[in-house]
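Researcher: I'd like a candidate sequence for this fold, 118 residues long. If you have to choose between options at a position, lean toward the conservative one.
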């Protein structure tokens, strides 16, 4: 599950974000506790807690004292909005720049995309 490319706590946070974006975790749904998460993935509970704390700081999770962690009501929209911005800046903008560099007109790109939707 975890790789060596980034710290485990960041991978935990990213996995939970992916589960929210895909709908595997719904708004106001309880997530595993840090101890359950740590036991399930055989990692240090402090590592899991650090990933969860990051998600709380980002507004993706919220804590109910004595009960556990839950997905924030607006988490999916928040994450999707951030990913949309990243998609355009990381994927679309470089694609348009490359298309301009090699002489592909924007209408041709649009036609190609529309053809793929059918």
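Model: Candidate sequence:
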């Amino acid at each position: 599950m975890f790789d060596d490319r980034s710290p485990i706590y960041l991978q935990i946070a990213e996995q939970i974000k992916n589960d929210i974006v895909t709908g595997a975790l719904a708004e106001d749904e309880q997530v595993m506790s840090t101890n359950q998460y740590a036991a399930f993935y055989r990692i240090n509970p402090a590592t899991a807690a650090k990933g969860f704390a990051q998600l709380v700081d980002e507004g993706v999770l919220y804590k109910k004292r004595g009960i556990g962690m839950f997905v924030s009501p607006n988490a999916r929209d928040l994450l999707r909005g951030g990913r949309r911005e990243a998609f355009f800046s990381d994927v679309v903008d470089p694609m348009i720049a490359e298309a301009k560099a090699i002489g592909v007109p924007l209408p041709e790109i649009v036609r190609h995309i529309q053809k793929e939707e059918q």
